[in-house]
Amino acid sequence: MKYSRLTKEQFEELHQEFINFLATQSITADEWANLKENKPELAETELDVFSDLIWEGVLNKAEYLEHFSAQHMYLFKLSEEKMHAIVVNVKNDEVDITTSEGYNWLRENLMDEHVEFLQADKDYSEDKNLDKFTMIEQGASITKGDLYRYFDKLIN
C-alpha cells in the first residue's frame, strides 16, 4: 500500500465507487461477501488497492495545500514541476493564529514588524504525489488556494 487506507466513513461515502471498482475486477456482491468471510487477507488487499486509487486521484487534482501552526502559516501552490511556498511567520509568542483571536490579530496586523513573509520553491522527489501525501499526513489540508492567492498578491 502506497498511501493509507481510507477510513470507514470514507468507504461509506465512496460506496458506489467501490462497487464499480469491484465490478471492474469481475467481483460480484456475493463474491465480495465470500472474500471477506473466507479470504480476509485478499479482501484487505482489495481495500488497500482501492484506497490507493482514490488517493492517486485526489493527489493528482490537488493544486494547493495549507498548514497552520501557532506562529506559522504555510501555503503551497502545487505546480507540475515544483511546489511554491509562501510562509507567514508571526514573531510574537502571545499570538496563536490557530485560534480565531490570533487569526484576527494577523489579519489586522499584516504589516506589523512581528509578521514576516518568506517564499521558496521546492522540487518534488521522484514521487510527486507521495510528497503531497506526506505533507497531508503531517497536517496540511487541500484547499482551493484563496489564502495562497491573497498572500501572493500582497507580497508580490
UniProtKB/TrEMBL annotation:
Protein name: Histidyl-tRNA synthetase
InterPro entries: DUF6495
Organism: Allotamlana fucoidanivorans
